[in-house]
Amino acid sequence: MVESVIERITRGHFWDFHGGIHPPEQKFLTASKPIKQLALPKQLIIPLQQHIGREGDLLVSIGDHVLKGQALTLSTNLMVVPIHAPTSGTISAIKTSIIAHPSGFSQLCIFLDVDGEDTWRKRKVCPDLEQLSNHEIIKKIADAGIAGMGGAGFPTHIKVNSKPDINFLIINGAECEPYITADDLLMMEQSDAIVDGIKILDKLLSPAFILIAIEDNKPKAIKALQQATAGIEKIKVCVVPTKYPAGGEKQLIQILTGKEVTSGQLPIHAGIVMQNVATCFAINEAVRHDTPLIRRVVTVTGQALDKPQNVWALLGTPVNFLLEKCAVQALENEKQPVIMGGPMMGFSIASELVPIVKTSNCILVPSKTEMPSAFEKESNEVECIRCGQCSDVCPSQLLPQELQWSAKAKDYPQLEKLNLSDCIDCGACAYVCPSQIPLVHYYRIAKAEIRQQQQLDLKAEKAKIRFEARKLRLEKEKMARQEKHKKAAAARKAAMNKATPEATGAKSAVAAALARVKAKKAASKSGSIDSQNKPVDAVVDEPVNEQKSQVAAAIARAKAKKKLKQEAALQAPKSDVLDKENPAAVVAEQPAQAEKSSVDDKKTKIAAAIAKAKAKKLNAASQSIVPIAPPITAAADKVAVESSLPEDISPKGIRSEKTSAEKPANTDDKKTKIAAAIAKAKSKALAKKSAQASSLSASAIVEESVIVKVPVTEEETMDSSAAPDAVNQSAEGESKSGAADKKAKISAAIAKAKAKKKLKESNKVDSNVTNKD
Amino acid sequence: MNILLAIVVLGSIAAIFGALLGFASVRFKVDADPIVDQLDALLPQTQCGQCGYPGCKPYAQAVADGEAINKCAPGGEDTIKKIADLMGVEVQPLDDSHVSGDAVQSNRPKVAFVIEEDCIGCTKCIQACPVDAIIGAAKQMHTIIIDECTGCDLCVAPCPVDCIEMREVPDTINNWQWDLTSIPVKQLD
User: Where does the chain bind [4Fe-4S] cluster 2 (chain A) (predicted)?
Assistant: First the structure.
């Protein structure tokens, strides 16, 4: 394959690329004049960024004196190319200034006041290339700040650092754009240096063949290079037919090798590296002479100039300085357009203070007759007539009219489908367009828009990723926090469960505190229940807890109360029963008391005291039951009245009572006490009752008691022998008697309730009762 | 007889084509992107919450579920148009309640800027930032990573000393767009 390509080349046969145009070359303006060395300008304006990529870090500050070739910025990454001081002088300012860009925007520039000495920094000339390793050479190229000088300005050290096998190294000297003769003259004047540069590239890349492509309209350059490369088998000087844009990278590759670099591919993928001749010259300067890229050949041309010519311009030279040197005729004319770059691909510069940069190869100052369109404020564009000439000339085989419509409609997806990215901005379509549509302009806008959109998409994607990452992180942190809390709690628990004295101490303290809290709670609860007067229920309801001493106390209290109540209930029937007979008893006792008054005096006192205490107790108990008592009392009242009278035990009770009462001092203290108490209670109750009852009922009771009394008195004499057992009998009698047990209880409860009620009611009549007692 | 033949022939043709179509629909089935992902891809991913949803994806989900398509303020008219195209609905003007400030400047991309001498280091803006584009620590000055800032505005409100402001991204060569207005286009009607 490679051999057949070389065979074809040696035979002078080349491939052709699609389309292309033959605009008037206009190279005669400058081609016959040697490159002129200019005097130093007063001031240089050096933009920090002169190529694709980023600007480096500043190494100098205002007021610094710099020597020629001294680095002004530092390369911090691969895409950064340093810049150097083109001559010696003082840095007067570092500020933004308009740069060589179609936008006319300002960028950071170093303003260098030239001292005119042109003193070089110390250089280390390297005469022997063989001493240097490839790595050192590449470093030298990078340090010299060399970027592609054909137009795009891609950092050269990246391009020459490719590892894969290179079939062809193509040196691009086609220079197809009209007017420009910078490379042509460089090849004529510096052919040896260029070939030396090519040799360096050969050493770095070791390609199979090196092809120097020159259009056939540059016979002198062809001759010079053929002489310079004579005897070098590897290098072929290829004279290609003149056709615009033969100098385009992909087009030139197709012409020379017949290979088409497909869309989205780089030439390196096809084993091809292309370098501009000016870049080869700069490489040679950098590697052999330690001279960084500080100057370049610029074609200053156009019919508006008296002396169009190629000049060696220091980077940073303002355009107006060059124009002065080339004797511009109509500089006063405000409308005079100044184009940087060629007529096909260049752009109008916004100010004549714009400096020359590494990629500026031409300053075009056309006259009105030469390029009328550049002078017209209004575009002569008319509607597309679909002649199809544009697609005929497109070197990238695109469909310019389709692209144009989509570009106007801002249909970017469609533009991408039409491979707008393969457009090389050559301007051939616009050149042939009969409707004078500035097609390339539309494409440039669309390209910028698409690039912008891609950046936004990229940013959006990044934002999305960051957002998601943040969400994830927050979630994780939350989980970690929860985990930590859980762990801390477990650790606390474990520490407490350990048998160390502190732990147990802490534990017991905590337990005590807990118990206190619980007890407090329970107390308040039971208190509230107490007030509701359901102490027994409260006890049942209360969850049993041994630690709650207060609860226990409450329970005890409640129990005591309950017992008390039961006691009272037990006593109540007796008292109740006796109550009714009270008048009779009193009547009966009276003679006995009269007989043994001395003995009874003491007894009665004791009994009174006991009764008082009991009454008090009963009082307290009754107070707690009072609220529930009322509903029952109404019914109880009746029952009590009904049941109490026909009671079977009553005679016995009376009897026993009587006997006990009648018994002399040797009888049980207890008995007497009880009796006394009963009597007292009875009397009290009766008093209350009577106080409350009408006079009628009172008399009836009296009558009844009198009636009842009769048999009692009869029996009294009969049963006097059985007197010691009387009390017991009375107790047994209660249990024995048919309905007695149940009845008694019920009646007792009722009576008690009644008694309490009465007690309450009779508080006012209490005084009377005591008086009676 | 002829009619019968015609029916049979046409019927068999219909059956053949039906079978073909049925086979094709199974065999060449295209698994389309879920609509939510497509919508999410159209949204600007500022995660600003101006639509009332906590992020772009939730809003995409909401739009897929029938929410109004005109709530994305950072996306503006372009995004609404794209969503309308995708959802097959009418383009609506941006919802007024979601237009922050004057509409003229809302088109320009902005980034947050911390006035550093005023910053007290409260970290409130850091917690508010949906894309972690603010660097800083407690009682240390905070600063915005401009490259990561989506211009969502969410950090401005929480700042207790009002030291965050939104600044327009300046035009540089890198984001410059060729201006068509420099070439007057004559319309020939």
Answer: 394, 423, 426, 429
